Please model this.
Amino acid sequence: MKRKIIIVIAVILCFLLQSTVFKTISFASISPNLMIILTASFGFMRGRKEGMLIGFFSGLLLDIFYGSVLGFYALLYMYVGYVNGFFQKLFFPEDIKLPILLISASDVVCNLFVYFFQFLFRGKFAFLYYLTHIIIPEWVYTIVVMIFQYFILLKVNQKLEEEEKRGASKFV
Amino acid sequence: MKRKAKFKIPAKYLLMGFTLIAGVLIYVSLTMNLYGGPLNTAAGYVFVPMQRGINHVGSWLFDKTDNLKSLRDVMAENQKLRSQVDSLTLELNTIKLEQYELDNLRELLELDQKYPSYEKVAANVIGKDAGNWFSTFTIDKGTKDGVDVDMNVLAGSGLVGIVTDVGPNYAKVRSIIDDTSKISGMLLTTSDRCIVHGDLQEMNENQNVLFNNLKDSDDEVAVGDPVVTSYISDKYLQGILIGYINTIEVDSNNLTKSGTITPAVDFEHIEEVLVILDKKQSGETESK
Model:
């Protein structure tokens, strides 16, 4: 229960920060993607199901407030969370390489999908421009922010897991 | 602690279920013009107050830092300027007052002449598109204040965009610099029409929007000419300033011209906008 409340708060917080504060401190009109960090982190920290659910609801929020088609981001983020869940077996909290790799891949793949469905389909073929001016800058900025956000999420998750374990062992 | 042996759905079936839900949502929002509905209402009541709060705190902080900065500047320059102040105070004050008054009057006059009879409501921008691909933003006025889909949005003296979706206490605005935005424009000088469309690449590089299909057989259009919304547009009211022509070139078909327009609005720093509560009357009969 406590976990659910904290996750809901995390999703809300990330959404609010991303659409307000991080928009005002954007470099060259590029801002980081906090929602993808959240979705991917919980994916590989907690597994497919949790990543998937967080992804779905984060995406739905983006759709409701800023999307052009309801359900597009929900679908995209859900699969990002789900696929990240497969890497739970390889995940160790001490190792930062895997999270960086996975979050990078998630962010870039996500943006590639957005380009493919919402720009390429409308006949915007300047892929190289979008790659060098939107996708890569956003990736860099996201990784910079991720280093802070990921450790906060990691600590929160470890605390929660500790408490859950303690609760379970007390019962036994 | 009670633990029931709960039946858990395997992740892949859950994935299939949610994929289906998302698919249905996409289908519904693409085929019918139904967007959100109850979702909009619920989300609006939860998130809009929080976004508004953050923005209030943000602008308050900016104000404070500004105050601190100006205070420090004033302290440093105080000594140096004190000798000059006396001689200049009187002159400066009168000029400043006059300037202020002039600006105000000019602004009022211009606005009122350009958009005489429209009823408007002022709104604050409370959040911008979370991604980096599109230029949509949300404002803190919704159906409760009379805002509805397809209403035009202005800032200062120029067109900002159009309301594309609305909740009870917020509205989603697509700006004219958005990559998917297309407007029928018209040159004030020659009354020639053209299509004005936003472009992410052009906006990022030169802060301009593009136009094409301009028929200017007499070669009268020049750089700097104002472009307004045209009379044939079915959603934009006639005669709202879009911007000024920046570059112009003849297309390869030798019949039409295209180029770039510098928007009249500074899209980097929009905080307050005006929503025109009158909608354009198109030929279709209204269902109301």
Summary: The longest helix of chain B spans residues 38-114.
